[in-house]
Design brief:
With about 325 residues, the protein is of the alpha/beta class. The protein has a single domain, classed as Thiolase/Chalcone synthase (Peroxisomal Thiolase, Chain A, domain 1), CATH 3.40.47.10. The chain is built from 8 helices and 14 strands. It is globular.
């Protein structure tokens, strides 16, 4: 938790970008042997976005980052951190190229890989850069193109995942300000590394290397870890579930969102579920959900808000803040 009198990282802008192509449940391949009703009932998803072949994950990231800067009303930033599981290539990192394409020169820029927890891991790293006095502002970008790593004929994953990007601009400010990141909780458990995975070149040197996950085990871990992590950041802020205005969890599927809210004793309307039209967008899901919650007037300035996520690694993370007054900027590509 922030110590009074110290500086804090403050959310100053929010931007998102989605591919323009929407794939609804009825348009999924017949070989998946599924139906719109089956998918909606089990996941809460009715459609997802798919990136065009000539659009890269960096294109999505640049658009979301530019929108976040526009939202914050600034043209410069001190550093950039990209959270992604789906880079165009394993080396070099994408963040320096994104910073260059945005005209930000030679600022510090690096990638973070924590799968669906990546956005919050990147936000925590950004907060450290700011509070340590290294930079005055950081663009935290999360961008994913899961359509390129998910087997299109695997019903357990193909119906879940979509593509998209979201970004926030964090600036140096006071812990007393709305938008100040008040507390973080981060954790991992490498004993569960095989539950969410993409095979490496050594174990599968030829052929397609598709994303996979052990659904039931991931469900149980996600509910437990997000619940406990959210409770820890609330405790650090001297909040309780009764005083929390809104929970914004990683948008894995509707059942996980509902289960975490129930474990925390929250009514359904105080937990954002914004995946119906975009699916699970991995690291990008929290900033996309924040923008959707703002558009639906579920999230208002002054709301006590907890963000929480769970992903491969295994990793989990939470953050607490009082939501600021800002206008999110959205685009499609």
């Amino acid at each position: 938790m922030q110590v009074p009198g110290m500086s804090a990282a403050v959310v100053a802008g929010l931007g998102t970008c989605l591919p323009s192509t929407k794939v609804d449940n009825a348009s999924l391949p017949d070989d998946l042997d599924t139906s719109d009703e089956w998918i909606r009932t089990r996941t809460g998803i009715s459609a997802r976005r798919r990136t065009a072949p000539d659009v890269s994950v960096n294109d999505l990231a640049c658009a979301a980052a530019a929108n976040a800067m526009s939202s914050a009303g600034t043209g410069t930033v001190g550093a950039l951190i990209l959270a992604t599981t789906t880079p165009e290539r394993p080396c070099p990192p994408a963040a320096p190229e994104i910073a260059y394409r945005m005209g930000q020169g030679r600022i510090p820029a690096f990638d973070v890989s924590a799968v669906c927890s990546g956005f919050l891991y990147a936000a925590a790293a950004a907060g450290g850069l700011i509070t340590a006095g290294i930079v005055d502002s950081v663009l935290v970008v999360a961008a994913e193109t899961y359509s390129r790593i998910v087997d299109p004929l695997d019903r357990s994953t193909a119906v879940l995942f979509g593509d998209g990007a979201g970004a926030v601009l964090l600036r140096r400010g006071s812990p007393a300000e709305q938008g100040a990141l008040l507390a973080f909780d981060l954790g991992s458990d490498g004993s569960g590394a095989e539950l969410i995975r993409v095979p490496g070149t050594r174990e599968q040197p030829t052929g397609e290397r598709w994303f996979s996950m052990a659904g039931r085990k991931v469900y149980l871990q996600a509910v437990e870890q997000m619940t406990n992590s959210a409770l820890r950041v609330m405790k650090d802020c001297a909040w309780s579930p009764e005083t929390l205005d809104l929970l914004v969890p990683h948008q894995a599927n509707a059942r996980i969102v509902e289960a975490v809210a129930k474990r925390l004793g929250l009514p359904p309307e105080r937990a954002v579920c914004a995946l119906a039209e975009v699916g699970n967008t991995a690291a990008a899901s929290i900033p996309l959900a924040l923008a959707e919650a703002m558009a639906a007037h579920e999230l208002e300035p002054g709301d006590r808000t907890v963000l929480t996520a769970f992903g491969g690694g295994l990793t989990w993370a939470s953050a607490a803040l009082v939501w600021p007054r800002l206008t999110a900027v959205h685009s499609e590509i």
